[in-house]
Amino acid sequence: MKIEFHCESCDSLLRITERLAGEAIDCPACHTLQWVPRVSRVPPPVAPRPSPPRADQRPALRHREAPPASKALDRDCPECQAPVSSRDSACSACGTALEPDRDWNPTATSAKEIIQDAWAVYVDNLWLLVGASLIEGVVILIGWMLILIPAVLAAGAIAPLGNPVLIMLTMIGMLGLGLIIQRNLMVASFCKFHLKVVRGERVSVFDSIHIEWRRGGVSLLPTVYGFMFISGLMILLVPGLFVFLVFWPYCWVWADNKIDKSELQAFPLARELTTRNMGTSMILAIIGAALFFVHGLAFPFSHSLKGVLQAVAYLRMSGQSIPGRPDRSRNV
Asked: What is the DSSP letter of 160?
């Protein structure tokens, strides 16, 4: 076996048998005395790296598997045509940045057209809507019980303090917090379910209580809207009615994925719709109030009819089509 090293004087490469390791020799090139090292000082040759294949020789890329069916894949990536969701900011297959899906054309629509379309959709899906409302009603009642129990326990825990005001405030605070959480959850599923029904998508009665525990599945907008509405009613009544007439489509804007920044963007987008349909919004408000007062007698029917009516109104006002119904909107 040879020991390889370079001459320190002339830098010639020397290959000396390992039997002479540790001894002095003369460099055959410059005749300078050199000590033979015990190991080679020349690194082993590195194999040349293969050149990358040409573009026409590269294997075709395989698309990644599609996301699970629970995620709404309602459009295609413009780069690789893989199915993606309207909420996705980037394609999961190729990484292309995606623009938000904004089918948005605020349109003036008459209340008569909205009522006709809503009634047609309601009749065609009557038992689905009634069944979903019954399930939603049961969930709401169970939620009230679950809210009441911790409120009573909390009040009982501070009862020995003997302060009735503190007990009352604790009860009100616990009940209010529970109702806020429940409303935020139920409004989200309510809007998404009725939008799917009106659009003719395949749904089940349990979709009315389906909550998506991820970004975009639950919103705090109902709390913000409720605070503005109730505060307006408490001040002079008129500001509260104004809040309702101007901002009522906020939850439908959010549920339809029309927000690409802050959730609060739902309010100015809702105003874009209602400013073209203020008279229609007033008629819908009167119908909604009437349906609210008959909730106790016909909740499964009135609750679902209200959902269909508002979903149809939102789609018509935003210039979107409804499957099976004529496009009778007019731009202004």
From this structure: G
Instruction: Dump pLDDT digits (tens) for 227-269.
Output: 888 888 888 788 888 898 999 999 899 888 887 777 888 899 9
Distance of CA 119 to the CA centre of its chain: 30
β partners of residue 35: 24
Two tokens at 144? Answer: 């009230």
- Of 248, 242, 294, 286, which is closest to residue 270 (Cα–Cα)? 248
Decide the pairing of beta strands 2-6 and 13-17: antiparallel
Q: What is the pLDDT of residues 9-63, one digit of tens each?
A: 787 777 777 777 777 777 877 877 777 787 666 555 555 565 655 555 554 444 4
Q: DSSP letter string over 274-326?
A: HTT-HHHHHHHHHHHHHHHHTHHHHHHHHHHHHHHHHHHHHHHHTT---TTS-
Residue 13 β-bridge partners:
6
Q: Please give the DSSP secondary-structure letter assigned to residue 90.
A: B
Measured between alpha carbons, how far is residue 252 from residues 59, 132, 154, 256 in Å? 45, 18, 36, 6
Q: Are strands 13-17 and 33-35 parallel, antiparallel or unpaired?
A: unpaired
Q: Quick one: which of 308, 74, 39, 26 has its CA closest to 194?
A: 308
Helix (H) or strand (E) holding 15: strand 13-17
Query: Half-sphere exposure (CA, 13 Å, Cβ side) for 72?
Result: 16
**Residue 105 · residue 319 · CB < 8 Å:** yes
DSSP letters along 143-195, please? HHHHHHHHHHHHHHHHGGG--HHHHHHHHHHHHHHHHHHHHHHHHHHHHHHHH
Q: What's the token pair of residue 157?
A: 């825990």
